[in-house]
Amino acid sequence: MDTPKVASAYTPALLTKYLNYIALPDQYAQYINQPQSFPKTEEALKDLFRCQITRFPYDNLTSEIQPEKTHTKVIGGSESNPRSCRGGYCLEMGIFFHHTLRGLAGIG
């Protein structure tokens, strides 16, 4: 049975903003402006996840199930809408990371 591919809610520009924000180790700097070229290796996934969980805290103050709104909430939308220094509850952050991984994998 084939599993349908769900497209990422995040554009390459949003993925670049994410990769810049999470403070990746230096060896990944070359992929920041070309997020779909990000390595698809176990080591890269571990590093990405480590950065994800250390940069975005879990909280339960508000929740957004819509990936675009979550991205804006945790990273910020623009200079006039800066980052809130917040994370989200576990499902919210899981959906956020899911769409990030799909975007990095080029599914979108």
What count of structural domains?
1
SSE order in H/E notation? HHHH
Number of strands: 0
CATH topology: Arylamine N-acetyltransferase fold
- Helix percentage: 40-55%
Protein structure class: mainly alpha
The CATH homologous superfamily name equals Arylamine N-acetyltransferase
Please tally the helical runs, counting DSSP H or I stretches of 4 or more residues: 4
The end-to-end span amounts to 21 Å
Identify low-pLDDT runs: none
Query: If classified by CATH, what would the architecture be?
Result: 2-Layer Sandwich
Strand fraction band? under 5%
* Overall pLDDT metric: 85
Q: Could you say which overall geometry the principal axes of the C-alpha atoms support?
A: globular
Name some characteristics of this structure.
108 residues; Arylamine N-acetyltransferase fold; mainly alpha
Report on this model:
- This protein has 108 residues and is mostly helical.
- The chain has a single domain (12-104), classed as Arylamine N-acetyltransferase (Arylamine N-acetyltransferase fold).
- Helices cover 44% and strands 0% of the residues.
- It is built from four helices and no strands.
- It has helices at residues 12-21, 42-55, 67-75, 90-104.
- The protein is globular, with a radius of gyration of 13 Å.
- The relative contact order is 0.23.
